[in-house]
Specification:
This protein has about 350 residues and is α+β, with helices and mostly antiparallel strands. It folds into two domains: about 5-85; about 105-340, Bira Bifunctional Protein, Domain 2 (BirA Bifunctional Protein, domain 2). It has helices at about 5-15, 20-30, 35-45, 50-85, 105-120, 135, 170-180, 220-235, 290-295, 310-320, 335; strands at about 125, 130, 165, 185-195, 205-215, 245-250, 255-260, 280-290, 305-310. The strands form two sheets. It has a seven-stranded mixed sheet with strand order 1-4-5-9-8-7-6, sandwiched between helices. A two-stranded antiparallel ribbon has the order 2-3. It is elongated.
């Protein structure tokens, strides 16, 4: 190392000029980078005689400080020069377009179902997603040993007391709360999110959405239930849709039935969607059990009613031929953009 090496760099620094931030960065790397000229002098400094260390050490530190100060000045000057030159973009030009989102397919189906039943005179009722055992099970005629009360089927938030809290497994709890606070006639639908402890697959999920309906008045019969379901099916799937009702069992309705609609893809001829049967299952229904009416303070000798429930994801799968339930929850933009052009309902 020679004194001339330090003086040479000092002279270069004094004459150094940069017009852009890019040139400033190149100068910084040239002098102060890992392989820069100043860094190289510090590497040589380790091998000089001890007698010269004090002299060259002081000179090198002063050199580094001057280089750093020069780089900072150049950086500020380049920034000022750019600002003085005015904006490089034409601010009068239109901005970059933002992609607009669209409604989720489940939301589209929910609104369509709500609008259909509102035409039939139904109001919309909602309730809490975290419910107690009474409103989800006991008031709906579930026996104490029913499998739904097992933690293998239900997400319990708190347990160990008489009325534990849980994530509701169906929106029937909203029907109970509606019957508790309203006197007949009652005509409501209850859309909402529900939770069940199920393995996630193409056909099942631990989170899904339901719409349940309830109609209570004097003289309500199973014929009224059948007519309401038929009208809904034709509004939802087309005027030529047919329904069939198969006997079933639910703790809160008696008699109970599963409802199928004629396949709107093959029109009853049989296809891979309906598994060759010509029918697609869409909902469960039945006449409200007298025990359920009495539990909510409604005189079962005077009033009768029907209830029904359907999964929104199931209806959406049939409507748009979606073959995997998981698509609704993965937020894949490629899937969601398929519904950007769905008509307003």
């Amino acid at each position: 190392m020679k004194r001339e090496d330090i003086d040479k760099i000092l002279a270069q620094i004094e004459e150094l000029k940069c017009k852009t931030q890019k040139e400033v960065e190149e100068a910084r790397v040239r002098f102060l980078g890992k392989k820069g000229e100043v860094t190289a002098l510090f590497d040589e400094f380790r091998g000089i005689d001890k007698a010269q260390k004090a002299e060259f050490g002081k000179a090198l530190n002063e050199l580094k400080q001057k280089v750093q100060a020069k780089i900072e000045d150049l950086k500020a000057g380049a920034a000022d020069e750019g600002a003085a030159g005015g904006p490089k973009l034409d601010l009068s030009m239109p901005g970059d377009p933002y992609e607009l989102g669209s409604r989720h397919p489940v939301s589209i189906v929910r609104q369509e179902i709500v609008d259909i039943f509102r035409k039939f005179g139904y109001d919309v009722a909602e309730g809490p997603e975290i419910e107690d055992d009474y409103h989800v099970f006991e008031a709906l005629n579930f026996p104490a040993n029913h499998p739904a009360r097992d933690m293998q089927d239900t997400f319990f938030v708190s347990a160990g007391h008489l009325n534990p809290l849980l994530l509701r497994t169906h929106t029937s709890s909203v029907q109970v709360r509606t019957m508790e606070r309203m006197a007949p006639p009652i005509r409501v639908i209850c859309p909402g999110r529900v939770f069940r402890n199920e393995a996630i697959s193409a056909r099942a999920h631990c989170i899904f959405h339901q719409v349940e309906g309830l109609y209570i008045d004097e003289g309500v019969t199973f014929a009224d239930l059948k007519q309401a379901i038929l009208l809904f099916a034709r509004e939802m799937f087309g005027p030529d849709t047919q329904i069939r009702m198969r006997p079933s069992y639910f703790p809160f309705t008696e008699p109970s039935a599963e409802v199928d609609v004629s396949c709107n893809i093959c029109h009853g001829k049989g296809c891979n969607i309906c598994k060759g049967t010509g029918w697609l299952e869409i909902l469960g229904c039945g006449m409200v059990d007298p025990n359920v009416l009495e539990a909510s303070g409604i005189d079962s000798t005077k009033y009768s009613g029907f209830a029904f429930g359907m999964g929104l994801e199931r209806i959406a799968m049939l409507k748009w031929r979606v073959n995997d339930l998981r698509h609704y929850f993965e937020n894949d933009m490629r899937f969601l953009q398929e519904f950007a052009s769905a008509p307003e309902i």
